[in-house]
Design brief:
Number of domains: 1
Helix content: 10-25%
Low-confidence stretches: 1-53
Strand content: 25-35%
CATH topology: Metallo-beta-lactamase, Chain A
Largest sheet: 8 strands, mixed
Distance between the termini: 45 Å
CATH superfamily: Ribonuclease Z/Hydroxyacylglutathione hydrolase-like
Radius of gyration: 20 Å
Order of helices and strands: HHEEEEEEHEHEHEEEEEHEHEEE
Number of strands: 17
CATH architecture: 4-Layer Sandwich
């Protein structure tokens, strides 16, 4: 269900909606909107006009930067719609159900191209709704490992230094192998923003899954990434909470955590979440989960 009814048709409900929006903290707004119903848009003038919220039964979204939407599915996987003057990029397609393409077309009238950060199920499962899809072809291995029902025969390859020109916004591709062999991030040099998928994790960094590279190779990717983005301000990752991005200090903590495991300076504790066993260590803002046989 993606059909939505214009807000002005809900005159009886509008007062109630605005009352709730302006009486509760920002972090509760999306939850409130989900409970209220299906509305095309809500402009929060009291928040300085920065945030625009939309919601439907399956997906919700918030405008986190000018012309950048953070979109979540039913299990809070993050996708990003980055809109330029001439076209728009959808970064990842989540694990939701229903008409994601229709939902995106409600947010933008620009032509849409999809870039997949990596091929794990929570970032790719609705991709076959779209015609023009880019993904590093090293990720075909991940699709095969997890036996996912994804038709990737039409996927276009992307690699280091590829540029996507949206008309007035340029996004640069950077390969960051580690979490998967072909993980990539997108760099917005002008605005000092990085869209990272799971390449640097999201507080928890999973390096214990089948297909993860050894930590000794991952650290090289992190060194390279840090040198490229050490002056960047915001990291919009694959599992954003409260629509708050990470900062460069998080990446510094991640590098230190990986270094300590490689040097055997710390001993991990048993990690019991999920279907794959591993150990975890904590350093600063990071929890690093890893496979002790893959260091």
């Amino acid at each position: 269900m993606n059909e939505r009814i214009p807000l002005e048709k809900f005159e009886d409900s509008k007062t109630l909606i605005f009352f709730h929006v302006f009486q509760f903290p920002t972090l509760l707004l999306e939850d409130i909107l989900k409970k209220v119903g299906n509305f095309s848009s809500l402009f929060c003038n009291k928040l300085g006009g920065k945030y625009v919220f939309t919601t439907c039964h399956i997906y919700s979204s918030i405008l986190v930067e000018p012309r950048i939407w953070h979109i979540t599915d039913y299990r809070n996987d993050s996708m990003y719609l980055i809109e330029g003057k001439e076209k728009a990029i959808l970064f990842d397609t989540g694990m939701g159900t229903g008409n994601l393409k229709g939902y995106i077309q409600d947010l933008t009238d620009k032509s849409i191209e999809v870039i997949i950060s990596h091929a794990h199920w929570d970032h790719i499962m609705q991709v076959n709704q779209f015609k023009r899809v880019y993904m590093n072809h090293k990720e075909f291995e991940i699709i095969k490992i997890f036996n996912m029902d994804i038709d990737y025969t039409h996927f276009l390859n992307i690699k280091d230094k590829d540029i996507f020109d949206l008309g007035d916004t340029r996004l640069e591709v950077m390969e960051v192998p580690g979490h998967t062999p072909g993980s990539i991030v997108l760099l917005d040099e002008e605005n000092k923003i990085i869209f990272s998928g799971d390449a640097v994790g999201a507080g928890y960094t999973w390096m214990h899954l089948p297909g993860c590279l050894p930590l000794s190779r991952y650290i090289e990717s992190l060194y390279k990434l840090y040198e490229r983005i050490k002056n960047f301000k915001k990291i919009y990752h694959g599992h954003l909470k409260e629509s708050k991005p990470l900062d460069i200090f998080y990446l510094e903590d991640l590098i230190k955590a990986v270094e300590k495991v490689i040097r055997r300076e710390v001993i991990g504790k048993t990690y019991n979440y999920g279907n794959f066993e591993g150990l975890y260590v904590e350093f600063g803002s990071v929890v690093l989960v890893y496979n002790p046989a893959n260091i």
